[in-house]
Automatic annotation (TrEMBL):
Protein keywords: FAD, Flavoprotein, Oxidoreductase
Domain Acyl-CoA dehydrogenase/oxidase C-terminal: residue ranges: 285-438
GO terms of molecular function: acyl-CoA dehydrogenase activity
Superkingdom, taxonomy of origin: Bacteria
Stretches assigned to the Adaptive response protein AidB N-terminal domain: 17-169
Record protein name field: DNA alkylation response protein
Region (Disordered): 1-25
UniProt feature, compositional bias: Basic and acidic residues: 11-25
Domain Acyl-CoA oxidase/dehydrogenase middle: start-end pairs: 183-275
Database matches in InterPro entries: Acyl-CoA_dehydrogenase-like, Acyl-CoA_Oxase/DH_mid-dom, AcylCo_DH-like_C, AcylCo_DH/oxidase_C, AcylCoA_DH/oxidase_NM_dom_sf, AidB_N
SUPFAM superfamilies given in the database record: Acyl-CoA dehydrogenase C-terminal domain-like, Acyl-CoA dehydrogenase NM domain-like
Natural source organism: Sulfitobacter sabulilitoris
Length: 542
């Protein structure tokens, strides 16, 4: 049954020049940049087509707004004073969790199918466009699988449930559940990224351990278990702390929920371990080495999510300017607006392409693939997260005052934009990791060089920029130049991927405006570029 349209004639004035509601959007079919790059890296197009169509429903955009408008609630006790240590979520949050678990967000990369990590990365990109908060527990679940799989005595119990397509948020031990999620609890008040200063203590209790201490950030505290770090007599060690035991609650005490800038649909808690029961994973005293694979895979998602946020913001901005006039002319037809939008599209398209190329390396089977994944994910994460807040802010500015109110998704996207630059290594940490990797791992440097050289001959301006880069940094640069080096390298790497896999007008414009020609520091401060083909990437056929 059709609904009655809202009244436009209000008596005092007529509502006009307001863009129509976008309705349902197929996030796969309206994104040629995603489809092209997903095909290039072997991602599963059929799965992504279904997921993208489902996520594009207008009802889900409304659900995302509800999930963030009504954030999680901490429930420490029941009405009788018995301890709960639970978090209650809005039903919309559970709706997103159910959809993404069923689609295989955390499972696909480990199901022995071609292009699993690339498919997962594209799912991160799609989900981040609509409701990025629920990605956190699923990203950690995805990233925990290699650690759990290597844990004797735990893999058989946990791995099948982590890979399940059934979402089960019930409060009971993992052996009684059809599906499970896993979180991380690493940082403490005194150390932050320097986890070697952690003070949480692990004491032997028969075959198991008991943990006493605290964690300053524990995201997704309703996960079924947490990978965590604690000190034993031999040093920092990795443990799995189950949330629920056989008929009892483990000694995990929620203290409070973080009142965060963004990511508000998802809970992040401060917790204490009060002799919490735990299983050791990996060698005693080798916690950082044990957990490094989880960090590595989490970084892939933090490199992909910004591209999704940029895409969502630019979609909203393009829809606005395509249906809004000023001075007797559509905004999208005005030359300066087209230049600004086209410049923003290049940042988004480049981030998407580089992220998926790196994800393809995660699927690779050679030593060079693995080496490129190690260095490439850091470069992609750094650049995408420096671009994302600026792109989202510019998209907000394009929409004017309407971009600043929560009737549109722009405020949600803007509050989310800084998160992935902080999560799993802030900018300085990532840059120093790049320098250390290049200094200690010759294969990583060789893999990066091969990837940069793969575009040689595709664009003379790229070749010249490549030689300038090589001349400026013939060896690993000093620490003070780390950001300059990482940004320059990531831009070259992005250009290499675009030259090989994107339409010529995209690659040529990227090289011209990022590597070759003079430009200003702000978005749109570029020379003349042909915007038509570039803008078609954000809204084909418009």
């Amino acid at each position: 049954m059709a609904t009655v349209d809202p009244a436009a004639d209000l008596g005092t004035h007529e509502v006009r020049n307001q863009p129509p509601d976008a309705g349902d959007r197929d996030l796969w079919n309206t994104d040629p940049a995603l489809r092209d790059m997903a095909a290039a890296v072997g991602a599963q197009g059929d799965l992504l087509a279904g997921y993208g169509k489902s996520l594009g429903q207008a009802s889900l955009r409304r659900a995302a707004r509800d999930a963030n408008r009504y954030p999680p609630e901490l429930c420490l006790f029941d009405r009788g004073g018995r301890r709960l240590d639970e978090v209650r979520f809005h039903p919309a949050y559970h709706r997103f969790m159910q959809m993404s678990v069923a689609a295989g967000y955390a499972a696909v990369p480990w199901e022995q199918v071609p292009g699993g990590h690339a498919t997962h990365a594209a799912m991160v990109y799609l989900a981040s466009q609509v409701e990025p908060g629920h990605c956190c527990p699923l990203t950690m679940t995805y990233a925990s699988v290699p650690v759990i799989s290597a844990a004797d005595g735990l893999a058989g119990e946990w791995r099948p449930r982590l890979l399940s397509r059934r979402y089960d948020p019930s409060v009971r031990q993992v052996t009684e559940k059809q599906g499970a999620t896993l979180g991380m609890a690493m940082t403490e008040k005194q150390g932050g990224s320097d986890v070697r200063t952690n003070t949480t203590r692990a004491d032997r209790d028969g075959a198991a351990w008991r943990l006493t201490g605290h964690k300053w950030f524990c995201s997704a505290p309703m996960s079924d278990g947490f990978l965590t770090l604690a000190q034993t007599g031999r040093g920092l060690t990795c443990f799995l702390v189950p949330r629920w035991l056989d008929g009892a609650r483990n000694g995990i005490r929620l203290q409070r929920l973080k009142d965060k800038l963004g990511n508000r649909s998802n809970a992040s808690a401060e917790i204490e371990y009060d002799r919490a029961y735990a299983h050791r994973i990996g060698a005693d005293g080798q916690g950082v080495r044990t957990i490094v694979e989880m960090i590595h895979h989490t970084r892939l998602d933090t490199a992909m999510a910004p591209a999704g946020l940029m895409r969502a913001a630019l979609t909203e901005a393009h829809h606005w300017v395509s249906h809004r006039t000023a001075f007797q002319k559509r905004l999208i037809d005005q030359p300066l607006m087209r230049t600004v939008l086209a410049d923003l599209v290049l940042d988004w398209n480049g981030s998407l392409a580089l992220g998926l190329r790196v994800a393809g390396a995660f699927d690779g089977t050679t030593a060079q693939d693995r080496a490129f994944a190690r260095i490439g994910v850091a470069l992609a994460k750094f650049l995408a997260n420096k671009l994302c807040p600026v792109v989202v802010c510019e998209a907000m500015e394009i929409m004017g005052g309407m971009g600043y109110v929560t009737d549109t998704p722009l405020p949600l996207l803007y509050r989310e934009a800084p998160l992935n630059g902080i999560w799993e290594g802030s900018g300085n940490v990532i840059c120093l990791d790049v320098l250390r990797t290049l200094a200690k791992d010759p294969l990583a440097g060789a893999a990066l060089t091969a990837e940069l050289d793969a575009a040689k001959g595709g664009d003379a301006r790229y070749d010249a920029a490549r030689e300038r880069h090589r001349g400026r940094w013939p060896t690993v640069p000093p620490e003070a130049e780390a950001r300059w080096f990482v940004e320059a390298t990531a831009l070259l790497l992005t250009a290499s991927v675009l030259i090989r896999h994107a339409p010529a007008d995209i690659a040529e414009a990227f090289v011209a405006t990022r590597l070759a020609d003079d430009r200003g520091r702000v978005c749109g401060a570029v020379g003349a570029i042909d915007a038509s083909g570039i803008l078609a990437r954000i809204a084909p056929g418009v």
